[in-house]
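Figure 3 (text version): structure tokens given as input.
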């Protein structure tokens, strides 16, 4: 199991389009991928879970990846956040 923390830098927060991109990216990995935000546990493969969390700009997010491809999963998810999922 690997964990890392990031700060959401997308000024519009994790709204529908980036939430969709995150869920699509997370679904490409076999590992379980969870986000921890403000005491909530979010399944990163579920667009509804991500959107219902209402994650806003400048929020700290802990990413947890657990499984056979956890290193690649964590690396790619972090890159997605760093690039604001293409926004």
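Below: residues designed for each position.
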């Amino acid at each position: 199991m690997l964990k890392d923390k990031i700060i959401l830098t997308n000024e519009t927060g994790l709204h529908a389009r980036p939430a969709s991109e995150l869920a699509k990216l997370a679904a490409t990995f076999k590992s379980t991928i969870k986000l921890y935000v403000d005491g909530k546990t979010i399944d990163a493969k579920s667009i509804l879970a991500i959107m219902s969390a209402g994650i806003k700009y400048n929020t700290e997010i802990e990413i947890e990846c657990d499984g056979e491809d956890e290193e690649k999963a964590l690396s790619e998810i972090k890159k997605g956040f760093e690039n604001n999922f293409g926004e």
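Residues 70-82 form the longest helix (13 residues).
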